[in-house]
Amino acid sequence: MHAHNDTLTDIYQRLLTHFGAQDWWPADTPFEVMVGAVLTQNTNWHNVAKGLANLRQADCLSFAALLGLSHAELATFIRPTGYYNLKATRLQNLLALIQGETGGDLELFLDQDLETMRAQLLSVKGIGPETADSIILYAAEKPVFVVDTYTHRLLSRHGLVGEESSYDEMQELFMATLPEDTALFNEFHALIVCLGKEFCRKQKPRCATCPLGVLL
DNA sequence: CACCAGGCAAGTA
DNA sequence: TACTTGCATGGT
Questions:
Q1: Strand C nucleotides below 7 A of a protein CB?
Q2: Whole-number distance in Å between A158 CA and B13 C1'
Q3: Contact A34, A94 (CB under 8 A)
Q4: How far is residue A23 CA from its own chain's centroid?
Q5: Phi, psi (5° rounding) for residue A37?
Q6: Nucleotides of B under 7 A from a protein CB
Q7: Which of A40, A54, A88, A132 would be A77's cystine partner, CB 3.0–4.6 Å?
Q8: Residues contacting strand B at CB < 7 A?
Q9: Residue of A177, A161, A157 lying closest to A169 (CA atoms)
């Protein structure tokens, strides 16, 4: 019998043992990571994949090509992701930022200092903390921890934070506890999402075989 | 049928 | 400040 503490490192180890390394983000290029980060807002990845496939088939998964689309064209491609009008605007807002900052050079944009990049991303209407941090961690590969709805459930249902805990508070818990390691932050968040997809539901926990042994 | 999904911003009091 | 609502498709 191994005693399990509900420390973050212990939770990480158990998730990694149970699910194995996830090797995120599920996309081929930093640009696709960025687009996917917006499209997956409050949306199942399965639907996001459809939207990305539509863009790929139309040869629009590049900065220049996406920038050239009208709002209506873009919205049509990303229709399966839901909130398509909203997300078309949000993507165009994001492209406009990068166009303005670097003339459309994504690599240059992602090469910036973490704090500078985060502030710039958060200034875009439609980019909140999770989307910004997802882009920073998975596209720019800089060490910031991504908090999402599953993270909140995991922490609060384990009693590690209060139910009303804020994004920044939860992020700080991870970043103050764990070593500042991009690969670790990458894998940990991916494992939390993996856990969430399989075991977490908003209302009814279905956790008979949950690897953490705690109702989620 | 009801509920959910890797959020975010705007409106109301 | 603290709730509430709109956005929307597709899977279970």
A1: 6-11
A2: 35
A3: yes
A4: 14
A5: -60, -35
A6: 3-10
A7: A54
A8: A 24-26, 36-37, 40-45, 47, 82-83, 86, 124-132, 134, 138, 148-150, 167, 193, 196-197, 200-204
A9: A161
Residues 6+ apart with CB under 8 A from A50: A80, A81
> Using an 8 Å Cβ cutoff, are A45 and A26 in contact?
yes
For residue A116, the one-letter residue type is T
3-class SS of residue A56: helix
Q: Give pLDDT tens digits for A69-105.
A: 999 999 999 999 999 999 999 999 999 999 999 999 9
Collapsing DSSP states into helix, strand and coil, what is residue A128?
coil
Q: Would you say A11 and A212 are in contact if contact means Cβ atoms under 8 Å apart?
A: yes
Q: For residue A31, what are its two tokens?
A: 């640009």
Query: Which nucleotide's C1' is closest to A167 (Cα)?
Result: B7
Residues of chain A with pLDDT under 50: 1-3
Write out the H or E segment, with its range, that includes residue A20: none
